[in-house]
Automatic annotation (TrEMBL), chains A, B, C, D, E, F, G, H:
PANTHER family assigned to the protein according to its UniProt record, in alphabetical order: HYDROLASE YCAC-RELATED
Domain of life: Bacteria
Entry-linked InterPro entries: Hydrolase_YcaC-like (IPR053152), Isochorismatase-like_dom (IPR000868), Isochorismatase-like_sf (IPR036380), YcaC (IPR048239)
SUPFAM superfamilies: Isochorismatase-like hydrolases (SSF52499)
Protein name in UniProt: Nicotinamidase/pyrazinamidase
Start and end residues of each Isochorismatase-like domain: 15-166
Pfam families found in the cross-reference section: Isochorismatase
Length: 207, 207, 207, 207, 207, 207, 207, 207
């Protein structure tokens, strides 16, 4: 018999780490179309807000070519912990960042960022080493091309990170539609155009 | 010497035809990602509104599986001519539709719709036959797969339709940024995430 | 002003030529998935039957490696003209075939077959030369790979053939849903799984 | 020496779980062509029926936008256990569903559904944790895009699920053609158009 | 009525121009897999030999990095006209080459070479200007990538060149299987592995 | 007989127009990998310099998000005509730009820029209308995605523009290696890594 | 420290299992181009012969639609063990086959076949369970499509099979070019057209 | 709790092995565009130089078709250990090579080469067996096609090699921008055209 333990996202035990979603760096992302990537990042952010997950924002050199944090994220998380790293490439090398993570008291970390093989993979590996359960939100993380992505996924997955995408994250956190049908429905309608169309067809028919 | 005449979009001579952008039909579109397609259709709509182009909406069997007109389009064009066709597959076979087109008094037609090889191609070919200048907004038109798209483009292009995409349409209509920098910039910022990032990086730097 | 004439499919003036849809040759087709290709060919056949279009079947060496005509086509068209060519590669080089075409009295020819650049392109070019209006049903025609397909399309299109796909053919022939909503709906439901789902969702809702 | 144990499908120890193959949700699937996906799902269903595997159907909100269970599945499994979940996203969170699984008395579970990273992955992980042998029927499971699929496969595979496709499932269950050549041949002929052509060529030759 | 004239390959009026199929240049070809490209070039060569078409070989700087003519071509055409151009990039700028073409007395030219947009396109355009009928054997012509290929095809096709592939060329030249079933069958069996399999299955069955 | 006239690039009659190759806009290009695109643009620039072609640089809002002209181009063309357009989207709408073009006295225009469907297509169509021979350098022109590119190519090609790529441009201008083997060889070695390898292998062997 | 043991192919301890490379089944392979696949299979066969590896051929129903063993394999291995299985789908279920494997006395098994997820995966998993070292020759194994291939690779790799391709197999077996430069060079020249070109360029230069 | 240990690149404990980056072999690489691959290899080399990592160069038969070591690498590493292997395919089978590795005294090995499944995979597996930490620089390693790459990655990853790409390597080595902003920035600017554009836009704005 397998000893597999399903480490399932528990909304009471999850923190979200959004690493270097900055306007300059976003323009380096070529493994998603810009529309898809924007939608995925904001969907994850909206999900984090919806589930009231403690969220930590961090950036690298906002004053330089990397550009400021994507403004939409600032708006969604006006009160989030916000660590502007003075130089550490791996966010986990920054004491304030780790303190912020520990301050959440959570053991499950959802991580997304730009670029996948660095800003996501490095803190993911560090957190795994410290015993956290790490869930990579793969479609809210972007990089230069498919080859780079593939290698990054392989490295993180081999280390024990769970590869997820924003929709699965939201579903695993919510568990049961009855907890709030409208809220979850709105989240999906806003970020899944094809699901929105299903809803609209359905609603029209109901009139 | 070539006798080529550049039939250039002139915002005073353009009407927009949005054909069968319905919620059910949208779910048949597989030659774009849903995020990309939604963005392209709304970008065209926002451009049409921005340039105050007369716009005609038409649908096929909104009460049936095809579903209602995409609600966002209704909101953007609350006062547009709106022809719910009782059965004509080619919108141009519908007298009211043709009347509405003629009532605009325009000679240049921007056409987009679902699906490309039918709802776009048929009225495009009919309009070409009647002497209109036809511009297909190819990225706001969707269909079942790439093969179907390729054949549809080939047929329309062979007939003299000009193949364009929403960004080119907006640029050709605007002609000169000095006509309104902020307005055009807002349109692009709302529908080109990569351009939005450039603007945000630029603005941040200006602070 | 353009002199474009919209040569539109007219169900009273169309004949269908199905060229070499044989079981052996079908296994050479690599520019479609087998499921997609089977569906496209049968969809065209069902459309031809639905619109009662005179249909001509022809094959090349059924006794050899090319294999027999796809049995489903035999069943759909039990009484169709059927020319087993003794060796002509271009079906139009076969007198009986041309006679059968002329016997239909139609001026518009829908052509599909295997392989695209030979069994479709050759008779298409011959028919164009004789003044027929030729419509290639591109997704019911298959070949070895995408490169071969691209060249074949280019050659036929440059010669004046119109590139279509089965769904567009059916829509252009039907013209108006009111001619028979159920019949056309059934055709689409049987050959467009995504449309079938729309219908089923709609019907369920109506209960 | 490796300690690998080949957990091989045994038709006496297998149950099939079909999760949320609903008409609305099917329209969200973009990682397969609609023809391919329809064929794969029905092939799995026909295989399950052919091998008389206990099969459990479950759906989520059939009355809403997700739509009813695909009617073809209802027809194939008129007497199957059928759990309409009142809200649980993970079918395994539904007591009736787990009871139905346990009632089969089987230890090997074939799971397919829509969407892969949620409706398939969640119960797969839950079942693995409870000691079941889990086999994902990957080509009868669909989702939004290739990225989402890749992450879902990675997560399930890392947990110990075996990734299979319907054809492999049927072959591993059957073990020996001599158990029933015609039955298995019919299954393949109905769902593998390329194999059907081989058979038809063969049969023709035999005449 | 269209004035289209089907300029059909006539084996009595065709010459073949193989331009710069050299071993060094072959390694620059990235728009085909090496196996596919090798097969296509040799298939064209074997077809030219089979139909006894006058064939002209030309190379550019065989002593330099471009490398020698592919040895297999030398073997197939031991007596062909062979023009080692001292520097002309467009073979048609070389008097000896044009003389050799004229010496064939043919009006239809089959052209293939490396790289497509230069070694094929330049002489193709020159020959078109001089009134020859030009047929590009597109799959026996290679270049750096798909973008470069697409542009080259577009330019040649717009100029009136007919885009073909080796299999279509062979079929159009042969016209009727009865002219020599075994010869054509052997050509196909040697260069179409999938057709070879059909033949082998057929032959086995016949035993 | 065809009336085709081969409008062949003549280095004495060519001017080069580089339109909006700015650092911000370059980050919008997603139809090439960044390495490929950088190389293509600089290859065209180096070719223009090598052939001493009059070159005109133009930009749109260098002070804004579009960013400055790519610095490498400034260095290659320190004395080129340079028109910073105050707002015209179509460079041809700018009098100074047209004057600069006319001042070259050339009839053949090589055009490249960002983005293809606007900054390249608009002046290309304008120049065609005025009787210039227009050659689009397609691989030194970039845009948002493949769909946008395809539509832009189709529109320009239908208008009579010739689609080329930088390597073909260099070859057609040079005509004969004997004009300068080393110079052309250096150009290719610097911008075609695969050709560079051929040369290096050859040189090593010669030692 | 890792406990990784490099299970390296040792030509004295390897047997080759070629499973169901039959002419009918070959026509089902769609995850390779026919040219590529034919080359890969014959390259593996030639390598097996070159290294004098004991090779076992097995087939399934050669008299039926699956067709006979590919004749080229028969010619390469006239004296190989040859098991025509009467019905076992997993070759390892056939006693004669297992006996033949055991009779070789080898512990390392190179396995290739059609289709990957069945004819390769099943015996691979069985052999792993019995303690053999299993090396899948992935590019000499084909299946219906990329999805099916991906799942099959995942399953075998998770079980401990090593994924290889024919070129790596040949290199790992040979170990040192000095064992026989000409023999290995001939193998590569015959099955790697790009390497053949390198050799031909080199040889020409040496003259 | 997981026992995962993050084996992180430490610039004091890393050696770089560049295996068979020769001019002939480079022309066999088809899983990257030539521009991308050249850039990746030189980026890795520049990073190795920047971090002063001991680097070992090795080649196989430079006098033959494989060609000389890429000259750029010779220039970057004039004093590097350089082992011209007399015949060992696996560099680790060469005593001098292993001695050179051991002489560095490092435990972490960055390996890249041509072709991936042989020249990279073989020494990677050997080094893993001897207890080294192995990091494959996947985008500076090339091979014949994507299938071959996929199998090679799978094999190395299963053995415990970490899959990385050059940018991640540089970032993990550098750890903190404050160690040298300009140096790292120059490295990125030289090898990431998209990042270079960000910097140039930023610098222009700063003027």
């Amino acid at each position: 018999m397998s000893n597999f333990k399903y480490r399932r996202l528990d909304k009471n035990d999850v923190a979200v780490l959004l690493v270097d979603h900055q306007t300059g760096l976003t323009n380096l992302v070529h493994d998603f179309s810009p529309d898809d990537f924007k939608n995925n990042v904001l969907a994850l952010a909206d999900a984090a807000k919806y589930f009231k997950l403690p969220t930590i924002l961090t950036t690298s050199f906002e004053d330089g070519p990397n550009g400021p944090l994507v403004p939409e994220l600032k708006e969604i998380f006006p009160d989030a912990a916000y660590i502007a790293r003075p130089g550490n490439i791996n966010a986990w090398d920054n004491e304030d960042f780790v303190k912020a993570v520990k301050a959440t008291g959570k053991q499950q970390l959802l991580i997304a960022g730009i670029v996948t093989e660095v800003c996501v993979a490095f803190p993911a590996l560090s957190a795994l080493e410290e015993g956290y359960e790490v869930f990579v939100v793969a479609d809210a993380s972007g990089t230069f091309n498919q080859t780079t992505r593939d290698a990054a996924w392989e490295r993180m997955s081999a280390a024990g990170a769970q590869m997820m995408t924003w929709f699965g994250v939201a579903c695993e956190l919510h568990r049961d539609w009855r907890n709030d049908i409208e809220g979850l429905g709105a989240l999906f309608s806003n970020h899944l155009p094809s699901y929105r169309c299903l809803i609209q067809s359905y609603m029209a028919r109901g009139k």
